TrEMBL record, chains A, B:
Pfam families per UniProt: Histidinol_dh (PF00815)
PROSITE patterns recorded: HISOL_DEHYDROGENASE
Known function: Catalyzes the sequential NAD-dependent oxidations of L-histidinol to L-histidinaldehyde and then to L-histidine.
Active site: 319 (proton acceptor), 320 (proton acceptor)
NCBIfam families, per the entry: hisD
Name used for this protein in its record: Histidinol dehydrogenase
Binding site for NAD(+): 121, 183, 206
EC identifiers of the protein: 1.1.1.23
Gene: hisD
InterPro entries, A to Z: Ald_DH/histidinol_DH, Histidinol_DH_CS, Histidinol_DH_monofunct, Hstdl_DH
Chain positions recorded as substrate binding sites: 229, 251, 254, 320, 353, 407, 412
Cofactor(s) needed: Zn(2+)
Residues holding Zn(2+): 251, 254, 353, 412
Functional pathway: Amino-acid biosynthesis; L-histidine biosynthesis; L-histidine from 5-phospho-alpha-D-ribose 1-diphosphate: step 9/9
């Protein structure tokens, strides 16, 4: 892991995998085919991409029961506790409809309504994470979404990982379909005989899933398109090198394109963490991925002051930020852009991935400048409420008509004036 | 305007103008050119598309003063009152950072931070609306956004409409650039020497603007991509046909692709509104546009019960909904999907376009199923806060490590365990 000065860095942005022209074209074709042939198209794409022929893509009760048998009972309890923590944190985010009355009889407000139906994409293979089920489904349930449909690609035997099935069952998700890729996104967006269409699609996926979400965006809502995982750690002399190194590597093991950055004012910590990363890398099962990530996208940035260090963090706008300093809440006030902020020595990043309660679906690649973690508000929508009384209308309609005429919209002016003719009847 | 039964309608969805392949290619080229040549590219596109050569695209003080001179003083007061109403409504939406402490010392919460810089696109020509300036800028200002940059295409004389300049000045927007189209979106997204880049771009525009926003989406945030305006009116016998017709036409005059729909259980009202629309159309300055809109996308839907009528509204998920019934608040509970809901006889839709306070940037074409009016939350982002105490870590780290190992992420498990080694030092 290289040690750099702040001014040696030109940009923290990584290139986004926008897919090749061929991939884009393939995704468009898949979507068109699913729109046209529905379940038949799903069946043939599952054969082609997942290597398995499925008569019925919907997961049944027997498969869920089987999944529980394959899981350690204590681990199931851990999953349940994690789900409860996540539910509890998200419940605190819930906003309510409100209104405001004025003396002239005007009532204005916002009505909150949950989205009717949400589709959750859960990736397959080694990236099939029960935690991903929790983090995407629970905020929707807390928001009051009535229907949640989950899709995930089947393994070569036509089965799904037990952890994913148990996680879904813990939440009471009873619509699980074995279908992945762009075809799953198309089915969720436009519906087939088996899968009713949804209003919003969330959840991570490979480049085909990302491209498909981009393609259906507008017809349905989508969540953000996530990039490789990131961590930045802001640390001073009080941080322990072996802990900092371990936390950096926890993100590096995700993906060779993941990014792990230490920002510090301590020369001692910089060298010590550098050595620790090397040492710890050697015994990691995913050493190869983590090493490449650290070499290509990792850095230790040595700053001249805590202010410069805080500015550096805001420039990075990291997905995950750990603040391991003598008084981390002092830094909190200075941090403007970060997806999740972990404060203090004991707040190791994986605590947030699995257990603490806040969402692990977070803005990546600097998008924390303008995006938030997945949250309950992502699954509701607001309607404005406007109720004008006769008095309010009488006192304001002429002004409104003038404003409309300034914009050249005569029918607008006449509409608001139209009450006049009958007001004395 | 045709009268239809509910079952005679198959879909309320209109095709979205996704642009032609040529338009998409042109937009990509424009964006690439602005990225490369910056202000020089802006100058040449302004020459090409707006027919005017500008040495300096930034609006100066003298132009603002000139704009005030061209405006009626009373009208300026109306604009100020409207701005104050809009600000007051949006101020009520402001959410605050929060946190929650647990007995084991855990602190969890969400930190709210405004987006740093926002770009507002204001369309040119006949669609240059001061109200659009208010509705896009005020929520950003209320959210606490520090920098708002406005772009709008210059007219053939190189000038801007006085109403737009005065509206911007009322709000204290001092960065106004005379540049429009895809080139303006590119400049806001990536910056030039004159225009510093922003984090989010909002505001309506033509197909080139919409395509450019779609293209830069991800590098910056964008608002929704708006379609033609819509109104649905849910009315019973108590509604006055001339008022309902006038309100339907207020949306029809926007665009030949606008949609105006009356949903009613009253046969009398259906025929009377049909006749009134015909009568009122004849004297409208924008008769041609409104007539085409009413013929192509207008309808009177005659329902058999109020329940069927309410369901119909939810299927349409209209941008604007008026409820003109004997007890409109009773219907409010049944409405799930609508951008803005106008309750009662005196709540004519243009009141919301200009004056009442709620935003007029609303989800169109059924997207009210999953989208909200533009609001203060669109200009903030949240950061999760996680602070675990030593006790919380001690009690939970083994569970978290187990969960991580279930997902095959050993470095995650080791990170959360790494505190162990030093905990007794």
């Amino acid at each position: 892991m290289k040690i750099l000065k702040k001014n040696e860095i030109t940009s923290f942005k990584r290139s986004v995998d926008a897919g090749t022209e061929e991939q884009r074209a393939a995704v468009k074709e898949i979507i068109a085919d699913v729109k046209e042939r529905g379940d038949e198209a799903l069946r043939s794409f599952t054969e082609k991409f997942d290597g398995v022929t499925l008569d019925n893509s919907k997961v049944g009760k027997a498969e869920i029961e089987q999944a529980y048998k394959q899981m350690d009972g204590e681990l199931v309890e851990v999953l349940k506790e994690a789900a409860a923590n996540i539910r509890s944190f998200h419940a605190k985010q819930k906003s309510t409809s409100w209104f405001d009355t004025q003396e002239d009889g005007t009532i204005l407000g916002q009505k909150i309504t949950p989205i009717d139906a949400v589709g959750v994409y859960v990736p397959g293979g080694t990236a099939a994470y029960p935690s991903s089920v929790f983090m995407n489904v629970i905020p929707a349930q807390v928001a009051g979404v009535e229907r949640t449909a989950m899709t995930t690609p089947p393994g070569p035997e036509g089965t799904l990982p037990p952890g994913v099935l148990v996680a879904a069952d813990i939440l009471g998700v009873d619509e699980i379909y074995k279908v992945g890729g762009a075809q799953a996104v198309a089915a969720l967006a436009y519906g087939t005989d088996t899968i009713a269409p949804v209003d919003k699609i969330v959840g991570p996926g490979n480049v085909f899933v990302a491209l498909a979400k981009r393609e259906v965006f507008g017809d349905v809502a989508i969540d953000m398109i996530a990039g490789p995982s990131e961590i930045a750690i802001l640390a001073d002399d009080t941080a322990r090198p072996e802990e900092v190194a371990a936390d950096l590597l926890s993100q590096a093991e995700h993906d060779a394109r993941s990014s792990s950055v230490l920002v510090t004012i301590s020369e001692f910590l910089a060298s010590a963490v550098q050595a620790e990363v090397d040492r710890q890398l050697q015994t990691l099962p995913r050493e190869e991925i983590a090493r490449k990530s650290v070499e290509d996208y990792g850095a230790i940035i040595l700053c001249e002051s805590m202010e410069e260090a805080e500015d550096t963090i805001n420039e990075i706008a990291p997905e995950h930020l750990e603040v391991v300093t003598s008084a981390p809440f002092e830094q909190l006030a200075k941090i403007k852009h970060a997806g999740a902020i972990f404060l203090g020595r004991y707040s190791s990043e994986p605590i947030g991935d699995y257990f603490a309660g806040p969402n692990h679906v977070l803005p990546t690649n600097g998008t924390a400048r303008f995006s938030s973690p997945l949250n309950v508000d992502d699954f509701i929508k607001k309607s404005s409420i406007i109720s004008y009384s006769e008095q309010a209308w009488r006192e304001n309609h002429e002004k409104i008509a003038r404003f409309a005429r300034l914009e050249g919209l005569e029918a607008h002016a006449r509409a608001v004036e139209s009450r006049k003719e009958t007001k004395d009847e």
